[in-house]
Amino acid sequence: MTTGRFIVFEGGEGTGKSTQAALLAEHLDALLTREPGGTELGASLRGLLLGAAGDGPIADRAEALLMAADRAQHAAELLRPTLAAGRDVVCDRYIPSTVAYQGAGRGLDAGDLTRISEWAVDGLEPDVVVLLVVPEEVAWERTGGARDRIEAAGRGFHRRVAASFREQAAADPDRWVLVDGTGGVDEVGSRVRDALRRRWSDR
Prior knowledge:
Oligomer: single chain
CATH superfamily: P-loop containing nucleotide triphosphate hydrolases
CATH class: Alpha Beta
CATH architecture: 3-Layer(aba) Sandwich
Helix content: 55-70%
Order of helices and strands: EHEHHEHHEHHEH
Structural class: alpha/beta
């Protein structure tokens, strides 16, 4: 049975992944979705998880479990049915973000987080993960400072997140592609499409 391709965009704040995910989805006529927030339940969880920079704290383990709950609903309600119908899916964030943000960022065990997330999605894995990489100062300029709880976590936190993404990519080169996220939107979009064409032609 033919299934759609599952493409995930990852990267820290200000890397341009949401913009590039939307561009690629349009190019492929794919379903564009995101985590957290890809379903009605997910939208409610996203409001709790991100909030505003000055909102009250959420315990690190609670944050991780809310992310997993969002992901479980997302996989069951949207991702699996769409892929099974033969349509490509482009997703803005997936399990690697939990490993990076709640693992490296918050200091929770990456192995525990991976097991929880994989259980939540019943083993659904992306075909390819596109990691957009930009220098720290470029990312900071693009975000314009902290707007939500995650962005307000501090530069040390975001450095750990960026390092985790690079480590995850290095550990699974058959699934990950790294793309330079600097430059104009169209320029980066061309790099993304070229990287994916090369990956798919290799296969």
